């Protein structure tokens, strides 16, 4: 019987920069890209984990992976890591803007203006900076950008105004940039994950009194009955970065297991009782 082959197994040798690649979805992307043959630079503030991952992926091959320290909140560091990637590979084919954070849930009253600005710097301004500095090089290779948005950037989420605003911004940036860069042959897309199971989420659940029950509860939100994996996120990013997606630009692809589909309870019965219909008079 013919050996089953992954669509991307080896042969994908694109020079790729992945921000926030030490852990979580970024590390899933690095794994999938390196397994497909890509030459990858991951950058992150977590140096120890990033260096260990890069070593492991290069040793496993067939691609290669290198780590560079970078705090994406600092545009000068973003510019530097792009230059380092160029110096290493001589070209840049793909930028995956992944570094980002979801702060703890709280109402708008509890977020300060400074909290909001800081989150925008991390989740949105960093993406703008990386695109800006990478594009002169991506235009030469007719490369592509994959941004990490979020399904809640489109849907909204309970007590997450700052996060949803930052991801909505990523979606708007993706669309506008896709329009501008089409004439240069550069594609710009976003993925919109729902719940992707990461070590960070498992660590958080471990600190909760009812962490296991919470974990099981979150798994029921998807029609698949589970969260996505970091490799599944990597697969979608790899597809969008590949020539197989050559006619796809400005897409915002949900990666959610169907969390946004169908109907279900939205408020508790007691909450509903305090929301009378507006007086029609
Ligand atoms: N996991 C999910 O369910 C989910 C859902 C929707 C969107 N996302 C988005 O996907 C991206 C990755 O999320 P994740 O869940 O894998 O997060 P994670 O916390 O597991 O990993 C984030 C990585 O980014 C790095 N990082 C954080 N701040 C940084 C900075 N200032 N400079 C450089 N690197 C930095 C961290 O060190 C870490 O390696 C984020 O943009 C997030 O908003 C995640």
Automatic annotation (TrEMBL):
It comes from Caldilineaceae bacterium SB0664_bin_27. Pfam families: adh_short_C2 (PF13561). GO terms for biological process: steroid catabolic process. GO terms for molecular function: estradiol 17-beta-dehydrogenase [NAD(P)+] activity. This is SDR family oxidoreductase. The keyword rRNA-binding does not apply. Belongs to the short-chain dehydrogenases/reductases (SDR) family. Gene3D superfamilies: NAD(P)-binding Rossmann-like Domain. Keywords: Oxidoreductase.
């Amino acid at each position: 019987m013919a050996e089953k082959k992954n669509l991307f197994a080896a042969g994908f040798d694109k020079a790729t920069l992945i921000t926030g690649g030490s852990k979580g979805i970024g590390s899933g992307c690095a794994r999938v890209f390196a397994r497909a043959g890509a030459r990858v630079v991951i950058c992150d503030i977590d140096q120890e984990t990033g260096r260990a991952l890069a070593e492991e992926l290069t040793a496993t091959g067939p691609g290669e992976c290198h780590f560079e320290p970078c705090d994406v909140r600092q545009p000068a560091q973003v510019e530097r890591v792009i230059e380092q990637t160029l110096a290493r590979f001589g070209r840049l084919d793909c930028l995956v803007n992944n570094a980002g954070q979801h702060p703890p849930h709280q109402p708008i009253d509890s977020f300060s203006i400074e909290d909001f600005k800081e989150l925008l710097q991390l989740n949105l301004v960093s993406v703008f900076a990386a695109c800006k500095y990478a594009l002169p090089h991506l235009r030469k290779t007719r490369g592509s950008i994959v941004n990490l948005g979020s399904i809640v950037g489109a849907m909204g989420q309970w007590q997450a105004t700052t996060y949803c605003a930052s991801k909505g911004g990523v979606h708007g940036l993706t669309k506008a940039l896709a329009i501008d860069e089409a004439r240069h042959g550069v594609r710009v897309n976003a993925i919109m994950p729902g719940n992707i199971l990461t070590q960070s989420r498992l660590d958080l659940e471990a600190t909760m009194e009812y962490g296991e029950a919470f974990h099981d509860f979150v798994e029921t939100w998807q029609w698949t009955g589970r969260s996505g994996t970091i490799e599944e996120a990597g697969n979608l990013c790899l597809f969008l970065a590949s020539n197989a997606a050559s006619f796809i630009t400005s897409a915002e692809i949900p990666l959610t297991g169907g969390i946004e589909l169908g109907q279900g309870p939205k408020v508790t019965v007691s909450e509903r009782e305090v929301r009378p219909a507006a007086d029609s008079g």
